[in-house]
Amino acid sequence: MTTQEILIRANEAKTALTLADTARKNQALHRMADALEKPDHRARILEANQRDLEAAKGTISEVMLDRLMLNETRIAGMADGIREVVALEDPVGKVLSETVRPNGMTIRKTAVPMGVIAIIYESRPNVTSDAAALAIKSGNVCVLRGGKEAWQTCHAIVEALQIGLEEAGMPREAVSLIEDTTRVSANELMTAEGFVDLLIPRGGKGLIRSCVEHATVPCIQTGTGICHVYVDRAADPAMALQIVNNGKTSRPSVCNALEVCLVHREAAAAFLPALKETLCEKRQKEGKQPVELRLDAEAAKIIPGTPAKEADFDTEFLDYILGVKIVDSLEEAIEHINRHSTGHSEAIVTADQDAARQFTAAVDSAAVYVNVSTRFTDGGEFGLGCEMGISTQKLHARGPMGLAELCTYKYVICGDGQIR
Amino acid sequence: MTTQEILIRANEAKTALTLADTARKNQALHRMADALEKPDHRARILEANQRDLEAAKGTISEVMLDRLMLNETRIAGMADGIREVVALEDPVGKVLSETVRPNGMTIRKTAVPMGVIAIIYESRPNVTSDAAALAIKSGNVCVLRGGKEAWQTCHAIVEALQIGLEEAGMPREAVSLIEDTTRVSANELMTAEGFVDLLIPRGGKGLIRSCVEHATVPCIQTGTGICHVYVDRAADPAMALQIVNNGKTSRPSVCNALEVCLVHREAAAAFLPALKETLCEKRQKEGKQPVELRLDAEAAKIIPGTPAKEADFDTEFLDYILGVKIVDSLEEAIEHINRHSTGHSEAIVTADQDAARQFTAAVDSAAVYVNVSTRFTDGGEFGLGCEMGISTQKLHARGPMGLAELCTYKYVICGDGQIR
């Protein structure tokens, strides 16, 4: 089917999803999870995955190949992921506010599904089932456009999910996969006005950039994180070290990992040598990859390291690299962050309540931490139970997007003949 | 100043606005209102308005000239409009949700200003002061781009507002007016990434269309309304007549006015003659402009009128014209509305609770009414106390946008050294 045909069918399924109650949606999720684990479906998914892996070998990195690879355990994990969504609260129909106006009419602001959510993603097959489950639970039709490396795997997964949907009496078009994996289909989704109610690009800078420039449908930018920590002069040095170490080294490839450490001049002489010891020397001794510190001129006077280029403070390294810069004041730290951050997550380490207040008020990012690692910006860690992505924009959703963020609202007004 | 220079200065004023507390913002609003009414400022505004009016004569309609015209009473009205905003609740700093996680960290989802809000509008000078007041109260910097017909008036108004801001110790750049009134500046605003946090186009279809196509900054579409009423077979005929009459004739030029009336076949034989009598003959007798009914083929079998063309069901007439169509079922009414509506406001008239439930659940518009006129879709009527426009999109804000909708949120997370 062409992308246009898929979108037309997806839109025809909208009303059924909007009207489905919680029990019906949960039943569909159970059937979808079961379908993934049925021996014949599972075999077909693994076969497809094998074909994808063979075609991709040599064209993508080992890390990417591992992300692409499925086995029985991973498929069981995907099914369990769907089942976990069953337990989450249904956001649809929630009355967000209710007022009775002087003329007697009642106004209820009510959460409703967006309609059709399109997701452009890359080579992780599990995004297919995760995104489908979150969309269904929030009453949305889901149109998936995966990367070409994972297409056969995604196709087999979607076929299984669709069988589950049908068994539960829901339209199979509630979840569909775009067949074309070239840029053409991505552009079609970006400009499918009237057919796509929300587009979520999950991918690298290039994809996000393309959406900002070309999308005429509503779009939420996700996932780019140049996250900062600011070690204040009133920081507990041990706590600061622990938070910087955790932010940088616990999982450098994710968007909530630290990329830049700002240190107050008064704290620098004691803190920087300890930082170097923990992130570089200690890790080397333990046989772990040491962190490369990229130092501004002032920091370089205190410890040895790579001299930082200007671009290093505007780069999402996603690697064992940390920019380090000395600042003269809290204000300079805030200004640096608001100038260089992608609006994802920033932290201050300080025992000074006033500094903490000023930092959280003035830093313009989705998540602002006081004495906590930036690594907590995550739907699960925030208690949302799930996550469709982390929004770095200010419109509609900011930070981790759970089920509520996949909904919009409508006003339902009831009366007995009121006119104006 | 160039548009770029104005945007740079606006961004420099952001932090001061974000950090201003309610008392300071209210003081600024009082000074802004007072400044408008100071005799010398008022005289300068009226002089500027005179120059605008003379230049516009013959180039725009009488209605537009009247909208552009200011006098002492209208200026006093603008000042009072600003003072009314003082009384509204400050949305900034409101804790939208608060959780303590098992590891002891506290997560507060907190309402914060957007930052810089740009508004593109046309020839109504009062939008200048209204928009500025709403922006200031919600902690936002406001960049205004008015139409060329009203530019001198808007410029004099903004000068007065800026003096008020300075008197209150706020940066004058909190409110500014773009000097260029050509398309160039509109396009600059649409693509000013990093400088405009929210763009609100207030104007006709052409402007909205241009924003959808060209904007790379976050944007909220406002104001186009093809509003429908569906007269169900279980409708109270007198109530239906009253609601249709009010929706069409009380103020046809506004976006919440009715454009299309759908009538259930079983109700049509009795309802349509009454509709014609009230909207056409009775109005004619009273010396009022009669409504032109544009009838589909089935309606034309029952009453005389203009035959409807297909385009009549996709047109925002903003005039004494009403499309009339007979439908065979509630489902057909819902389907017609979801296909032809702009997502603004729709109403059902019915005594059947099930029909009402189905209609409100399935109609995909910002405001869905049961036995109430669509004319109530308005910030004031909804109890928001004000309105920056009526959003017809689903992302971020839907329906009337009050102060809360001019804010985003951030997560503020506090702990004592939590790492992941």
Features:
420 residues; globular; 16 strands; homodimer; 15 helices; alpha/beta; four-stranded parallel β-sheet
Can you put this structure into words, describing what you see?
Two copies of one chain form a homodimer. By secondary structure, chain A is of the alpha/beta class. Chain A is 43% helix and 20% strand. Chain A contains 15 helices and 16 strands. In chain A, the strands form four sheets. The first copy, chain A, has a seven-stranded parallel sheet, with helices on both faces. The radius of gyration of chain A is 24 Å and the shape is globular. The first copy, chain A, starts with a helix and ends with a strand. The interface between A and B is large, with 67 and 67 residues.
General form of chain A: globular
Mean pLDDT figure of chain A: 95
Proportion in helices of chain A = 40-55%
Strand fraction of chain A: 15-25%
Largest sheet of chain A: 7 strands, parallel
**Cα gyration radius of chain A (Å):** 24 Å
By DSSP (H or I, 4+ residues per run), the number of helices of chain A equals: 15
What is the largest interface, and how many residues per chain? A-B, 67 and 67 residues
Task: Describe how the helices and strands are arranged.
The structure is a homodimer of 420-residue chains.
Chain A: H1 3-12, H2 14-19, H3 22-37, H4 39-56, H5 62-68, H6 72-87, E1 95-100, E2 106-113, E3 116-120, H7 126-137, E4 141-145, H8 151-167, E5 175-177, H9 183-190, E6 198-201, H10 205-214, E7 227-231, H11 237-249, E8 258-264, H12 265-285, E9 292-295, H13 297-300, E10 306-307, E11 321-327, H14 330-340, E12 345-349, H15 353-362, E13 367-372, E14 390-391, E15 399-400, E16 407-418
Parallel strand pairs in A: 3-4, 3-6, 4-5, 7-8, 7-12, 8-11, 9-10, 9-11, 12-13
Antiparallel strand pairs in A: 1-2, 2-16, 14-15
Helix pairs in contact in A: 3-6, 3-8, 4-8, 6-7, 7-8, 11-12
